[in-house]
Amino acid sequence: MVELYILLILMIIGSVVALEVKDLLSSVVALGAVGLGLCLTFLVLKAPDVAITQLVVEILSIIILIRATLKKGLPMVATGGWAFPSVIGVGFGVVLLLVAIQCFPDLPKFGEPMLRVSQHYLDQGLKQTGATNLVTSVILDFRAFDTLGEVTVLFAAALGVLAVVRTRGRKKLEQAGAIADE
Amino acid sequence: MMIYLLTMVLFGVGIYGVLRQRNLIKMILGIIIAEHAVLLFFILVGYRLNGRAPILSPDAPITNMVDPLPQALVLTAIVIGLGTTALLIALAMRLYGKYGTYDIAKIRELRG
Amino acid sequence: MSKERTPGMSVIVKTVTRLTAWLIMLYGINIVLHGHVSPGGGFAGGVIIALSFIHLILAYGKEMVLKKLSEGLVEVFESTGALVFLGIALLGTTAGFFFKNFLPAGEPFHLFSAGTIPLSYIAISLKVWAGLFAIFVALVLLRIDKEQG
Question: Do A131 and C113 touch (CB under 8 A)?
Answer without folding.
Answer: yes
